[in-house]
Amino acid sequence: xxxxxxxxxxxxxxxxxxxxxxxxxxxxxxxxxxxxxxxxxxxxxxxxxxxxxxxxxxxxxxxxxxxxxxxxxxxxxxxxxxxxxxxxxxxxxxxxxxxxxxxxxxxxxxxxxxxxxxxxxxxxxxxxxxxxxxxxxxxxxxxxxxxxxxxxxxxxxxxxxxxxxxxxxxxxxxxxxxxxxxxxxxxxxxxxxxxxxxxxxxxxxxxxxxxxxxxxxxxxxxxxxxxxxxxxxxxxxxxxxxxxxxxxxxxxxxxxxxxxxxxxxxxxxxxxxxxxxxx
Length: 279
Hints:
Shape: globular
Strand content: under 5%
Helix content: over 70%
Distance between the termini: 35 Å
Mean pLDDT: 82
Low-confidence stretches: none
């Protein structure tokens, strides 16, 4: 079946599948963690049972998404070494510490407070529970920060030199972390994650609030009530409002990449002109 493919193509297929599967979960959980923090804060402020019910409903889904993201992320990190061993050898002095910082700071922060967020409301009190929820949300954003820094450095490298054996070695960590395309990629990813969560939450809101026969998965969702439905929809639409804002950072990062890779820009421009002439 795979006789016509060499090892490099197969490695690309495998890594592309792993990345495509993995990104589904962080792109949802990043926004969902912040959504949970907002719901918990609104519950503490208003004592409206709608917010508490929504929080308890979505925290279970967050736990599953978080777990799937961890499992698929571990596979992806191993594939850096198994599929791209030369890259790992050459870029390891820069990429390795950045990925380690993500695990030691962001992931440990999320994992450490996740249990309190899921099971600790009655055990630690509301204020500490709110703090734990906020720390989980902050951890997801910090995790995105480190990973986007790594990814951006691969596209717009800065702050490094090449040693005698051809390895990229760090010279200025400030320039490495805050490389030229990093701020725009981070803004683009975080806004896209918020938008993804908003659309998923909005779809579930409609599914669980409109139909007369409620699906089994909606048995814990707030019962259909015009006031409550407007509350949920209003909160979701605020998240959807970031949709246009997510577009501009992505375009800016694309143009920054073109400055680093003029040959690729010329190729894409020639390809676009050829397709335009053909059609």
